[in-house]
Design a protein that fits this description.
The protein contains 14 helices and 13 strands. The protein has 406 residues and is an alpha/beta fold. It has 2 domains: 147 residues, Aspartate Aminotransferase, domain 1 (Alpha-Beta Complex), CATH 3.90.1150; 246 residues, Aspartate Aminotransferase, domain 2 (3-Layer(aba) Sandwich). Strand 3, helix 5 and strand 4 form a beta-alpha-beta unit. The longest helix has 22 residues.
Length: 406
């Protein structure tokens, strides 16, 4: 019998959190007295702005042509203009910006471009808890993920000081996520300074995942990686790539549109990789993306919707769970201990069975490292639906917890 060869690295991939959630809920019968409400998947549910759908319809003739992988100059210029308005940055649209089909595709492809898997013991660092594409991209590039814990006592800041010298010496790439998924934490300038100093010392690339940058609750918008570099005099963005997306900012996750920006010496080989990978963005989507990046009012309106929603939902949940308003993003990262639970999976399963509300166990968003799974005992709630639905879910969770204590 002939055995069909397969890439052996595929065997290292772990099930995605939502597949694990499906397995957890197998055999659970949700309470039929309640309509189902899901706070599990971080998929934006606010309406897509009309200006974007109008641009899509107006440029349908673009389906008849092959799009350039580098993107149309007008799209790169729109991205550069947004970076200037948002962060005060001067970025060359020809050499320092590249359109991508959403941040997930770019995170994966960038890893394949940057990591030299032929070097034994190569590490890719990622925060823990984390977005699982970081881990999968590292494995398939031939590297080993190293999970860096977050510190709950410091608003879930990543504890870079915990990384051993021997690991730094073999690190080729690190992922940062600010605002963070699932914690909502925002990196401060001192953290960026530390990472840049480490990058200069050891030569690794920093990939800054910033897809939640426009959903925030403080008066000051989150600091971006390129912005931090410029503040610290690193105007060439050496070994730094920032990744952003329209999915959350403009409520168009199905459009699969974003861009990367940063070190021109990294953008050039990244473009080469993506040319062979077949990752060009449709010119129809490019036209709609230009309209989106050039308009800020719909972003302000979207942010205000989230602020109003979190202002109503957070007090209800903070009364029964260990949770506070995050710095940014659209998640609540809650500890379940006040509810009398030690297991996040038990909490999620019982909540579904009794009140037909879905939440994501925090342990599914992290890995056990240094003997600890930092997501254990926590849940992630994505407040992406309309305010009334999220508020009803919060009230059901509060009722579930209060009943479980009696």
């Amino acid at each position: 019998m002939i055995i069909q060869p397969m890439n052996p690295l595929l065997s290292k991939l772990q099930p995605y959190p939502f597949e694990r959630l499906k397995q957890l809920f197998a055999g659970v019968t949700p309470n039929p007295n309640y309509r189902p409400i899901s706070l599990g998947i971080g998929e934006p549910k606010h309406a897509t702005p009309q200006l974007i759908t109008d641009a899509l319809i107006a440029h349908m003739q673009g389906l008849s042509v092959y799009p350039p992988t580098a993107g149309e100059p007008a799209l790169r210029e729109a991205a550069a203009g947004w970076l200037n308005r948002r962060y005060g940055l001067k970025v060359d649209p020809a050499t320092q910006i590249l359109p991508v089909n959403g941040s997930r595709e770019a995170l994966f492809a960038l890893t394949q471009t940057v990591v030299d898997g032929s070097q034994a013991g190569a590490y890719v660092l990622c925060p823990n808890p984390f977005y699982q594409i970081y881990e999968g991209a590292a494995f398939l590039a031939g590297a080993t993920p190293y999970y860096v814990p977050s510190d709950p006592a410091r608003n879930f800041a990543v504890d870079w000081d915990s990384v051993p010298e021997a690991v730094w010496q073999r690190t080729q790439l690190i992922f940062v996520c600010s605002p963070g998924n699932p914690t909502g934490a925002v990196m401060q300038l001192d953290e960026w300074r530390k990472l840049f100093e480490l990058s200069d010392r050891y030569g690794f690339v920093v990939a800054s995942d910033e897809c939640y940058s426009e959903i925030y609750f403080r008066d000051e918008p989150p600091l971006g990686g390129l912005e931090a570099a410029a503040k610290l005099g690193r105007t060439d963005f050496k070994n730094l790539i920032a990744l952003t997306s329209l999915s959350k900012r403009s409520n168009v996750p199905g459009m699969r549109s974003g861009f990367v920006a940063g070190d021109a010496k990294l953008i050039k080989p990244f473009l080469l990789y993506r040319t062979y990978h077949g990752s060009a963005m449709s010119t129809v989507v490019q036209a709609a993306s230009i309209a989106a990046w050039n308009d800020e009012q719909h972003v302000i309106d979207n942010r205000n919707q989230y602020r109003a929603k979190f202002a109503q939902v957070t007090p209800v949940l903070s009364a029964v769970l260990d949770v506070d308003l995050p710095d940014a993003a659209f998640y609540l990262w809650a500890g379940v201990a006040p509810a009398g639970y030690t297991s996040d999976t038990d909490f999620a399963r019982d909540l579904l069975a009794q009140y037909n509300v879905t939440v994501l166990p925090g342990s599914y968003l992290a890995r056990e490292a240094q003997g600890v799974n930092p997501g254990a005992g926590r849940i992630r709630m994505a407040l992406v639906a309309e305010t009334s639905e999220c508020l009803e879910a919060a009230q059901r969770i509060a009722e579930f917890i209060n009943h479980s204590k009696t």
